[in-house]
Amino acid sequence: MLQDLNNNTICAQATASGQGAIALIRVSGPSAVDIVSKVFLPRRDRKLAEMKGYTMCYGNLMKDVGGVLDDAVVAVYRTPESYTGEDMVEISCHASTYIVSEVLRRLVDCGCRYAEPGEFTRRAFLNGKMDLAQAEAVADVISSQTEASHKIAMRQLKGGFSKELADMRERLLKIVSLLELELDFSEEDVQFADRSELKGLLGEASSHISELISSFKLGNAIKNGVPVAIVGATNTGKSTLLNALLGEDRAIVSSIAGTTRDTIEDTMNVGGVLFRFIDTAGIRRTLETVEMAGIERTYYKIKQAAVVLLVLDYTRQEDFETSINNLTTNLSGSDQQVIILVNKIDEKPVVSTTLFEGGAVAEPAAPEEDINKVCSSASALAAAAGFTPLAILPISAKKKIGLDELRTILTTSQSTVKAGSESTLVTNLRHYSALKDAYEALLRADIAIDEHRPGDLIAQDIREALYSIGTIVGEVTTDEVLGNIFRNFCIGK
Fold first, then answer.
1. Are residues 112 and 235 in the same domain?
2. Structural domain boundaries, residue 36
3. Sites in the chain below the pLDDT cut of 70
């Protein structure tokens, strides 16, 4: 099945669809040059079949009924020195929807097959131009939205991650070879692999894999965005805050309590860090089935978030304690950061009349003084609930007051995200799962050594670790695995 993909010639548009200046159409396969020669007429009596690799030619794309469809430049790449490792032709023409569709139609009529998503990169992998981890990095480079995610993807594309895994596999293979050599001399009871040295090597490999596994949380945040849950009671302005941060009306805003029934997510680059903001259903007592389901999802998102924005309503200070206590019972760990936002400071709060000891009615505090008192009260309630917020910030989501300061606090809180992009991080769930399997296999091997088990049993555990590591770079793979990976690629890459 894997080889069948390379027996035909494929074509696809590599640039984005729609009108533009230039469109790029790719053709790859054994008949790439011959098929394009039926569609493209070079100037100056040149022939594509005679062109060397890495050369370009100007000419005309021809209609099937005669006449010129468009002027174009064609680049020829020869096997194996091409992206796919096959003969490959790239056609640069005007990005008219009509022109592109006509060129693709003519190519298919002349013997091409329209490419599947990621099929060019899949062929590059099958032809040994890159390993599977590098192939997956191609998609990550295309989808990167920040400098940090781009750096990680480029490091993986250039083979940095693969080299680390290759070095580790080489050391483990050496161990397995010595252990299996002992089987040939089992009657003499000879040990070629010193057990203390073996434990040291296993410890180094396990430690390295453990570090890679631990890096997944940070790597995933860099790639997919730091999850920031916007939570609070109903009508505190959570959806208004999401819209204000994103600069668009992403969530429906209404004065009706319970308008947001489900989570709404969107990403934004803030100060070089990708954040994934999650607007959640307001927390309150309700018997309405759909709203209850939304609130349950809110609790789940709180536990998954790296940063929680607790939105309190300045005009409803009597709800502060309940909101803070509700949040406290749903936080998942000490590594979560909480920012308390006292929203609606542009609105006048309801002031309850209280009496001094002498019996006089207390005068309402000046706005700024009152806002400071309210923030101090929120801080005291948080302390009583058992956590210290990263910051307590008075804002008006509606008037966009305090949002610049909030963005600064968010980016400062994620300084490790920028720093982390300088090291090797695991960003792919498939890689993370394989590394966990490898780690567990090495732990079993370590225990087997302590229990003085035969070398062949120890070798079997190490081979299982090698198998798991091999699945990352594609030394061990199946059609199903490749299909799952490449179906998420864009067509033409």
1. no
2. 3-131
3. 1-6, 181-194, 248-263, 281-299, 334, 349-366, 418-422
Amino acid at 231: V
> Does any domain span residue 491?
no
260: CATH? 3.40.50.300
Shared-domain flag, residues 459 and 410 = no
Strands annotated E in 17-173: 20-28, 40-42, 55-62, 68-77, 88-95, 113-114
Cis amide bond preceding 117, omega within 30: no
d(CA 235, CA 438): 48
Residues 274 and 162 in one domain: no
Judge whether 30 lies within some domain.
yes
Q: Are residues 331 and 371 in the same domain?
A: yes
In the structure encoding, which two tokens stand for residue 277, read together?
């903001």
What gap in Å lies between CA 305 and CA 325, rounded to an integer?
17
Domain count, the chain: 3
CB-count burial class (<10 Å; 0-12, 13-18, 19+) for 178: middle
Rounded CA-CA distance 190/312 in Å is 72
Q: What is the pLDDT of residues 141-200, one digit of tens each?
A: 888 888 888 888 888 899 889 998 998 888 888 878 777 766 655 555 555 556 777 888
d(CA 59, CA 61): 7
What the block records as the tokens of 360 is: 């006089």
